[in-house]
Amino acid sequence: MARLSFENERMGETMGERVDFPKNYEIYVKKAVRKMQEGNTKEACRWFEEAYKIRQETSLNAMYTAAMYEIGKFEEAKEIADDKKEAYESHDYLSSLYIQILTKTHRFLEAEHLIQKKRNQSDDSLKEQWEMLDVSLDQERIRFEKQQKLQDQKLMKEVASLENQSFAHQTAVLKKMQDLSKSSYSAAAKEILSNPSINEIVKTTILEELIQKNDKDRFELSWFDKKRSIVPSELRSLEEHLAVKTIRKELDEKISQQDPILFQTMEQETNLQFLLIFPYIEEVITDPESWLKLCLDQYEGRDISQQEDPKMKKMSCWLERINREINQLMN
What InterPro entries does the record tag this protein with (predicted)? Predict the structure, then answer.
């Protein structure tokens, strides 16, 4: 019988498309419950998942969510619970589980709101339950804030020493900055943006993040050998710059079909250029079509330094300067 069940499950996958037999749901649930009873919660989650793909019942959702919570997969538990969020906010047992999940995923305000809601709705017999959850929430918040502070302090030390580090190291620290608190991220961003020794691409990445967040603070930016004062919320993202759009359109329309290899090379090169000169792209690329011609001439080995037109001369000087930055980056 066990072999027959196994074969039935395998037969349920036809031509790469999953087809479940009616009894598979019960089989998966029984396997999950048995694994829970054996203390193998991780394996139980696998079978709960299979069962939930077939039938999204609230009772199964609760077991699946509780199992994921038990093995410490709090974000995944929240995602599953949110599929039946109304039930979790209505039923006391599910609300208790959901509050614990919100607490562990550091959604403290949402957890507080639900605790208060349940206090107002429940009778006195459950008062102690909500009080205990409130205490647990406060303890977790204190622990989280303490941990966040230590983490911020450690990372801020790394930020302070970035100027002597390689581009690869600077990029690695940049990724870690996503875990900083809002105030610490802003402080780190100010230090990086104002530092002339930190790579322009790193600064561009931070600026794009600040623009996306519509940050209204004022930052000092060291851009090549210039000092600028900027407000991210007043800047356009890289993709919105006219020079970027024009050059990409020119590449697509005039080169992509005729010479795919050249197109790929020029696309990569110009994208790198944009990252280096952002947010003052139009200050450097005053004529997108002519800039692209300079790039193509350079690619074909022509001397771009001998330019009679003042505008072309200025752009060729910028292009040569950017080339030096790129070469330094690659070495």
Answer: TPR-like_helical_dom_sf
Could you tell me if residue 217 is left (phi over 0), alpha (psi between -120 and 50 degrees) or otherwise beta? beta
Q: At what angle do helices 74-81 and 92-104 cross, to 10 degrees?
A: 140
DSSP sequence for 263-311: HHHHHHHHHHHHHHHTT-HHHH-SSHHHHHHHHHHHHTT---S---SHH
**Does residue 137 share a domain with residue 17?**
yes
Domain shared by 186 and 89, yes or no: no
Which among 250, 246, 218 has a CA at the least distance from the CA of 234? Answer: 218
CB atoms near residue 206 (< 10 Å): 22
Q: How confident is the model at residue 18 (pLDDT cuts 50, 70, 90)?
A: very low
Are residue 256 and residue 317 in the same domain, yes or no? yes
Q: 65-118: per-residue pLDDT in tens?
A: 999 999 999 999 999 999 999 999 999 999 999 999 999 999 999 999 999 999
Cis bond before residue 196 (omega within 30° of 0): no
Domain check: are 295 and 324 in the same one? yes
**Domain for residue 206, yes or no?**
yes
Per-residue confidence (pLDDT) for residue 165, from 0 to 100? 83
Q: Assess whether 48 and 121 both reside in one domain.
A: yes
Question: Token pair of 15, please?
Answer: 């031509």
The domain spanning residue 42 has which CATH number?
1.25.40.10
Residue 296 domain boundaries: 239-330
In the block, which residue shows the tokens 């250029």?
273
Compute the distance between CA of residue 71 and CA of residue 77 in angstroms, rounded to an integer.
10
pLDDT at res. 329: 78
Q: What three-state secondary structure class fits 213?
A: coil
Lowest mean pLDDT among 50-54, 222-226, 305-309: 305-309
Q: Quote the CA–CA distance of 108 and 155 in Å, as a whole number.
A: 24
Buried b or exposed e, range 119-137, using 16+ CB within 10 angstroms: eeeeeeeeeebbeebbeeb
Domain count, the chain: 3
User: Residue 118 falls within a domain, yes or no?
Assistant: yes
- For residues 180 and 227, state if they share a domain: yes
Calculate mean pLDDT across residues 121-147.
92
